[in-house]
Amino acid sequence: xxxxxxxxxxxxxxxxxxxxxxxxxxxxxxIFGPMxxxxxxxxxxxxxxxxxxxxxxxxxxxxxxxxxxxxxxxPEASRETxxxxxxxxxxxxxKFSSPMLTSESRDFILxxxxxxxxxxxxxxxxxxxxxxxxxxxxxxxxxxxxxFQRKIASLKAGS
Length: 159
Prior knowledge:
Structural class: mainly alpha
Helix content: over 70%
Oligomer: single chain
Largest sheet: none
C-alpha cells in the first residue's frame, strides 16, 4: 500500500511538471502575456511570475486528491509525504528567487511564500483532523490567488 501511495504522489508531481513544461512549449498566455504587458514594469512582471508559480503549486493539491479513488480517505502518511514535497518546492523557490527580486516586490512576494510555508508546515504538525486541515489548504490556495490578483489590479490602476 505504501508503494502505491508513493507512486500516486510521484504521478501527481509528474503530471504537474508536464503541465508546466507544456505551458512553456505552447507559449501559454498565462506565462507569456504578462511578459509583454508588463515589460516596462519589473515589479508587476515579478508579481505575475510569482502568481504563476503559486498557481502551479496550488494545482498539485486538487490533482493529488483526484488521483485517489476515495479522496476522503487519503492515508495520513501519503498526505504528509505529499505536503513535505510541496513544502520543499516552496522553500527551494524562495532560496532561488529571493536574490533576484527587486526591493519593490521582494516583501510582498516573500510574505506570500512565507505564508505558504507556514500553512504547509502547520499541516504537517497537525496530523489530527487531517481532512479539515486539507480543506484549509484548499482555502489558502484561493486566498493566494486573490491576493495576487488584487495587488496586480491595484498596481495597474495606479499606473
